[in-house]
Specification:
Layout: E1 9-16, E2 20-27, E3 32-36, H1 42-64, E4 85-87, H2 102-112, H3 126-138, H4 145-169
Parallel strand pairs: 3-4
Antiparallel strand pairs: 1-2, 2-3
Length: about 170
């Protein structure tokens, strides 16, 4: 008998009205749906909750479909996603309202949440943005990888020349 692969968490970036990203996490171990939103909005809360519940039902329909491979994850009635509790941590740090950083927050959560269950203690900052940019540049499927690295090297060479010029002319 071979061990079946299992999934403990599923991360689904959600978009609200084309201009704000938040994250839905399906936590199969703790049997809950987690909504991580870096820019809470009372006026949009109902829409975002409904969107998460609709996505949960959609995922459940996929898992229940006869064509879904039992080799990946067998269907268990007690693991119906629509029965999971919806959890919205209230203690998560919030982005600055004018920052348009919701995508950075979602990327940061998707990177760190697989390894922890305290969803709220993750902060996105300048270092987060740089790490995301570096990871995107270094990704194996980035067809512009070499071009971006060459341009970065060219940029830093020009910066070094400016510093050298200032040292000589001071």
């Amino acid at each position: 008998m071979t061990a079946r692969p299992s999934v403990s968490k599923m991360f689904i970036p959600m978009n609200d009205n084309g201009n704000h990203w938040y994250l839905m996490i399906v936590d199969f171990i703790q049997r809950k749906l987690v909504c991580l939103d870096s820019l809470r909005c009372d006026a949009r809360e109902h829409f975002r909750r409904r969107a998460i519940l609709k996505m949960a039902i959609f995922l459940e329909e996929i898992i229940m479909h006869e064509s879904f491979s039992e080799d990946l994850t067998p269907f268990w009635p007690d693991r119906m996603i629509s029965n999971y509790a919806l959890h919205e941590p209230k203690h998560i740090a919030q982005q600055i309202p004018e920052s348009n950083d919701s995508g950075v927050w979602v990327s940061k959560w998707m990177t760190e949440c697989p390894f922890r269950s305290d969803y709220g203690n993750i902060i996105a900052n300048t270092a987060s943005r740089m790490r995301i940019a570096i990871n995107l540049v270094k990704a194996g499927n980035n067809v512009l990888h070499e071009e971006v690295l060459a341009k970065a090297a060219q940029h830093w060479k020009a910066e070094d020349e400016k510093v050298d010029y200032l040292k000589v002319n001071w």
